[in-house]
């Protein structure tokens, strides 16, 4: 996941950022259900630490 840890350099500052991803790979039918599961997985990725992908 090191590709998701990066720096953005501007003339005034360097901004460091990381990425946490919640990925839903199955068809849940309704968009609301997909969004709910993706949100749960994103929360799990964020609580697990930086640069996480939760499937």
From TrEMBL:
Residues 1-55 form the GGDEF domain. Coiled coil: none annotated. InterPro entries: GGDEF_dom, Nucleotide_cyclase, Rev_trsase/Diguanyl_cyclase. It comes from the Bacteria. This is GGDEF domain-containing protein. It comes from Solidesulfovibrio magneticus (strain ATCC 700980 / DSM 13731 / RS-1) (Desulfovibrio magneticus). The lineage of its organism: Bacteria, Pseudomonadati, Thermodesulfobacteriota, Desulfovibrionia, Desulfovibrionales.
